[in-house]
């Protein structure tokens, strides 16, 4: 069976694949990468720290479904919609917080020693994540201690653009 662009069957298949893709967790970092186009394949043109105010131009439907066009410090680009949080007057890059009680480990894996535990809803700073087979660990700092957290225990606080 061949799906034609614009056909109802094509639209249904596209919606299903988009929903499946959105269900997969994304790599969490404290900053948001601004890209030159609406997708992870486009080059990074700036990194925007959590809490930074940005100007939101558009969060488009269709092929730009999960991406918002923004302006930040004189640059125009795109960020993943699920990294943004509306505040009273602005849109900012949403900070990373813990989903549940979260163990911070001395290395990236369950076998590493627990350095500290973080209560749910606490803000953390992440310098990046590394993916492994069926796992992903993020290097974080919390109250003067640093270590690794399973990325499934992190989320963006207040990010409402996520679909």
Characterization of the model:
The longest helix has 16 residues. The N terminus is likely disordered. The chain is mainly beta and 163 residues long. The strands form four sheets. The protein has a five-stranded antiparallel β-sheet with strand order 5-4-3-7-6, with no helix packed on it. It has a five-stranded antiparallel β-sheet with strand order 13-12-11-8-14, with no helix packed on it. A two-stranded antiparallel ribbon has the order 1-2. It is elongated and about 45 Å long. It has one helix and 14 strands; from the N terminus they run αββββββββββββββ. Helices cover 10% and strands 45% of the residues.
Structure at a glance:
With 163 residues, this protein is mainly beta. 10% of the residues lie in helices and 45% in strands.
Determine the N-to-C terminus distance: 29 Å
Average pLDDT over all residues: 74
| Structural class label | mainly beta
Describe the sheet with the most strands: 5 strands, antiparallel
Q: Into which percent range does the helicity of residues fall? A: under 10%
Poorly predicted residue ranges: 1-28
Shape designation: elongated
Which radius of gyration do the C-alpha atoms yield?
Answer: 17 Å
Secondary structure layout plus pairing:
Layout: H1 8-23, E1 32-35, E2 44-48, E3 53-59, E4 67-72, E5 75-80, E6 84-86, E7 91-93, E8 96-98, E9 102-105, E10 114-118, E11 123-132, E12 135-142, E13 145-150, E14 154-156
């Amino acid at each position: 069976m061949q799906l034609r662009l614009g056909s109802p069957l094509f639209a249904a298949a596209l919606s299903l694949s988009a929903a499946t893709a959105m269900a997969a967790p994304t790599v969490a970092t404290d900053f948001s990468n601004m890209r030159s186009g609406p997708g992870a394949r486009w080059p990074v043109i700036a990194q925007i720290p959590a809490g930074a105010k940005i100007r939101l131009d558009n969060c488009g439907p269709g092929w730009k479904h999960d991406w918002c066009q923004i302006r930040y410090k004189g640059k125009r680009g795109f960020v993943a919609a699920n990294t943004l949080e509306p505040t009273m007057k602005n849109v900012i890059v949403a900070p990373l917080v813990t989903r549940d009680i979260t163990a911070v480990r001395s290395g990236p894996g369950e076998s590493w020693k627990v350095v500290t535990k973080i209560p749910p809803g606490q803000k953390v700073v992440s310098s990046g994540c590394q993916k492994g087979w069926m796992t992903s660990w993020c290097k974080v700092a919390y109250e003067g201690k640093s270590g690794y957290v399973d990325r499934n225990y992190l989320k963006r606080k207040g990010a409402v653009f996520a679909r």
